[in-house]
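Page 47, continued from p. 46.
Same chain as before, 492 aa.
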Amino acid sequence: MSASAGPVDSEGAPQGTPPASPSALDRFFQISERGSTVGRELRGGLATFFAMAYIIVLNPIILGAGEDKYQQHLDNGQLVTATALMAGLTTLLMGVIGNVPIALAAGLGINAVVALQLAPKMSWPDAMGMVVLAGIVLMILVASGLRQRVMDAIPNGLRRAIAIGIGLFLSLIGLVDSGFVTRNPDKAHTSVPLGLGVDGRLQGWPVLVFVIGLILMFVLTVRRTRGAILIGIVAGAVLAIVINAVAEIPDAAWGLSVPALPDSVVSSPDFGLIGDISLFGGFHEVGWLTGCLFVFTVLLSGFFDAMGTIIGVGEESGLADDRAHGQLPRMGRILFMDGVGVAAGGFGSCSANTCFAESTAGVGEGARTGLANVLTGGLFLLALIFTPLAKVVPSQAATPALLIVGFLIMASNVREIDWADSTVAVPAFLTVISMPFTYSITNGIGIGVISFIVLRAAVGRAREIPWLLNVVGLCFLVYFLLDPIEQALGVK
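Result:
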C-alpha cells in the first residue's frame, strides 16, 4: 500500500521540504535575491537590445556625416564594427561588474558634439583621443568618490523629476523615430515645430505597424502578460516583414532598418578604426585652453546623461535605496564602468559610450540584474557578423516599447514629488519639460539644478543647498554659457 500524500505548499512541493539551493548563476547575479528569474532577465536583455539596436545603424550615419580638419570621413563599415563591438564589450562589463541591467552604447548627443564640434578642428584620431581623456577623468572622479557625492547631493524631488523627464524623453524619441510625429519643414512657415504624421495626417504602412504594436503592448501590459514588451516587438517586426513583402513600400519609409529578409545573414567586420587615436594630438591642433573646453563639454554630457539614466533605471527597477540617497547596489562599480565606457568608445573611434535610457525597456520586462546585460552585450557582439539580421527589426516595431516605459516611469515617480513646495516643484517641472523639448538629458538636469539653487536662495534657504550642488550648478552655468565664454577668451 502506498503512503498517502502529505500536505503541499503553494508551489506544489511537500511542506517542510527545504528550498532548493540557488545555482551558481543565481548567486553570482543575485537573481532570486532581487526578486527576478532567469527567464525575466533574458526577456529583458532581448527587449533592451531590440530597443537600442538602431544605434548600430544610426551612430555611423551621425559620425560619417561630419569630416575632420583634413576633410577625412570615417568608413561606414568600420564604424558599424566599432559601434557594435564597443557596445557589446561595455554592456557585458557593466553586467558582470556592476550587476545592473544598464546597457551602454555610443551616446546620442555626444556623438554629434564629436562629429560637428571636435572633429572639424582636428583629425579623427585627435578627437577620439579627447574622448578617451574625458573617460579617464570620469574614472578619476569615481575613484576619488566625487562623482558619488555629486549624485548624493541631488535632492529627492529633482531625482524623481529626472526619472520622469527621461520617461517623457523616451516617449518623444519613440514617437519621432516611428514617424507618428514628424518635424514640420521650415518651408511650411509655421511656428509649430512638430506635427502628426505628414501634413497632419498619419500616412503609410510603417506608421500602422507602430500603432498596432503600441496598442498590443498596452493591452498586454494592462493584462499583466509576461513578456509584454518583447512580444509586442516581435509581433511588430513580423507584421512589418509581411507588409513589406506584400505592399510596395519605399525603403526610405521605414527609416534606418528595412524589415526584409536579407540576401545574406552574415557580413565581415572591419576592425580598422579600433585603437586609431592620438591621446594629446588635439591639444597641439587647437591649443590647451580650447582643448580643455572640448574635454569639459564631452565630460559634462557623459557625466549627467549617465547619471540621469542610472537614476531612472534605479527608480523604475526598484533597486534604488531611498535611505541611501537613491543609491543602487554596487554604485561605485556602476559609475566606474560608465567612465570605462566613455574611454572605450573613444578607443574604438565610435564616440563615447554611455548608459542608454532604452535600458528601461528591459527593466519593464522584469530585468533586475546584470544577466540581462550579458544577453544584450552578447547580441551586440553577434551583430558584428550578423549585422544584416540586426537591421531587420524596424524602428516602428521597437519604438512602442519606449512609450510603454515612459508611462511606467511617470506612473511610479510623479506622485513622489512634493508639489506643495515651489522650490522643488518648479525645478522638477523645468527638468521634466526640458529633457524632451531640448532633446537632451544633460540640459534637463542642468536647468533643474540651476533653478533649484536660485529659488532656494531667493526664499532664504540657501544654507540648505549642499555645497557640492552649488559647484555642479556653477559647472552647468559654464556649460550653458560656453559660447560667450569662448568668444570672450578669444578661442572661437
